[in-house]
Amino acid sequence: MASCINKLNKAIMFGCAGGATGLAELLLVNLSDVQSITITNNEVTALTLVANAKAVPVDCYKNSVKMIDAIRQLDGATGLEQSVTVTVYDKTVDGANIIEALLNGKFIAFGKLRELGAIKVAGASAGLESSASDSDTSSNGGFMTITLKTPDGSKGDSPTVCSSSVWSYLVANKLNV
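Structure (tokenized):
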């Protein structure tokens, strides 16, 4: 066997946690605001933002935000196509500016799960960019839902989590509402 093939070396066990679903909190970071990021063994262990940059909190009201992973295979390489769906409830000019930034930016998402407080990361290597949007004044009150996903043509990302110290750093450096 080739040495580049990963070997499964951990038992796959059922966790006894309650099974709560959804995100408790989501922070988006503009990829251009990341000065450096260190990923060790599928965990973001260090992250530094450029001067005056802030993580952007996203309200996770009634599961209005979700993170999804799907397999992506490209030229013999396998990664994850990661997507983050965000609902923008603001219908003012501020909301229009947020939508414009989401449609044209590139991001890393840090999602704190409701259960056990684990922190899932999407876009740590490839970034996330807009792939779909939807707004319907008849069925959802005109709220805009935007999906950010792994860019087309990239291998995708690895399954990645975040250390508690990096999460604390992001929380300390987030925009105040």
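The radius of gyration is 17 Å. The chain has a mean pLDDT of 89.
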